[in-house]
Amino acid sequence: MPLQIYNSLTRQKELFVPLHEGRVMMYVCGPTVYDDAHIGHGKTYVNFDVVVRYLRYLGYRVRYVQNITDVGHMLDTGEDRILKGAARERIEPMELVERYTRRFFEDMDALNVTRPDISPRASGHIPEQIALVQRLIEKGHAYVVNGSVYFDVSSWPTYGKLSGRRVEELIQGARIEVNPEKRHAADFALWKRAEPGHIMRWPSPWGEGYPGWHIECSAMATKYLGQPFDIHGGGVDNKFPHHESEIAQSEAAYDRDFARIWMHNGMVMVGAEEMHKSLGNFMTLRQAFERWSPMAVRFLIVGSHYRSPLDFTPEAMDAASRGLERLWGAVRSVRERLQTAPEGPADDDVLASLEDHKARFLAAMDDDFNTSAAMAVLFDLVRVSNSLVASPEPVTRDTLAAIDAAYRELGGDILGLIPPELPAEGLAGLAADLVQLLIDTRQELREAKQYALADQIRKRLRDLGIVLEDTPHGTRWVKA
């Protein structure tokens, strides 16, 4: 079955046909590098890593662009996230950016996420953003007020076509801050004047200032991919206003489509709630890696469809760790027996079974990258290979090599779950498991009102450099 992708713009699955035969141009909104990446970042970039891997597996040459937002991402309060982070850590904004950009890529490497072909920075593309703003002014889609520039949504009747929101609803919804400079409450900033004391500022035709959040993606996507391009991806939380604004300003500037297919991955949930700092259920990737292996985090993410919400709980992660070890255990068994297997042709029945598994796996991936169904097929293969390896009957080297090749191709090349060399069995996550055992014991002591012993466990762990944090959703641990 040919590849079909759910297009958020048309709200239906579509047969994927790239603009240029054999080539795919793809853009995914990157991180704002003011703090460590969190589980939500992990879900987004693992999801789209699988998309890129599968497109390349199908033979496409993919140019994958993922930006780095290092200026201009506004909070609801109007603050720049980079400046707020720099003030928090009392360092220069660009020092903050360098620190967290490096840490972001380290976290992605740990998750076995393939690095983008191009990772352009917003601060390195100010001329392109200014040129795009000028073009919008010249075409009557933007206006200047006191050194700031705003996009006029009334000039673009299709504004809202991605999210399904009407401009009238935006006025009534009133999550838009009242700004007397705007002609319309839904208008959004393309360029903001720099107030006295604002550190990050660049010269422009309208005075010193800095770009708004949305303009960077339009400028950089068009620069490196052209317009239109094939696929634009990102989290569903970016659908409005970020992606909606990207579409409006890009299409208004050039009078042609911006991106042909829009893909949005689901949110991270903890129980019935979204993961959020204010709810006390927030976790960075580094905090997660202290308790579970990065590949177990990837296993959990890949185990659900990219458009579905991901329920991130300790129980789900523990189950993912066991599932990953089961998968790796099956691969280890095949590779170990391969070392001493007798020569001989591959078993025809096994080869036929492998072809069936591969066909079902690829059919799942062709159905809008259904990794959940693909994983089910992979574990069908685990049962087959475990049965074969456990059999007292001799298994030829070519038969085992064919099974190993299937694991490498489906579980490794496409899903990114099986590395060429597996870590030693049983060692991954052992230290984390021991810490969790102590946490569970401490909780039992507290329930038995043996508070002195419970406090002693906490104190001894702190002496070892492990800090326990009690939250409404349970106790987690971090390295001091």
How would you characterize the overall build of this protein?
It is a single chain. With 480 residues, the protein is an alpha/beta fold. It contains 15 helices and 15 strands. Helices cover 46% and strands 15% of the residues. The chain is globular and about 80 Å long. Mean pLDDT is 91; it is low at 172-176. The protein starts with a strand and ends with a strand. It has helices at 39-57, 81-89, 93-110, 126-138, 167-173, 215-225, 239-254, 285-291, 294-302, 314-338, 348-366, 371-390, 397-414, 430-447, 451-463; strands spanning 4-7, 12-15, 23-28, 61-66, 142-145, 148-151, 188-193, 209-211, 229-235, 259-265, 268-270, 273-274, 310-311, 466-471, 474-479. The longest helix has 25 residues, at 314-338. The chain has three domains: 20-265, HUPs (Rossmann fold, 3-Layer(aba) Sandwich), CATH 3.40.50.620; 308-414, Anticodon-binding domain of a subclass of class I aminoacyl-tRNA synthetases (Four Helix Bundle (Hemerythrin (Met), subunit A), Up-down Bundle); 430-479, no CATH class. The strands form five sheets. Strands 4-3-9-10 form a four-stranded parallel beta sheet, sandwiched between helices.
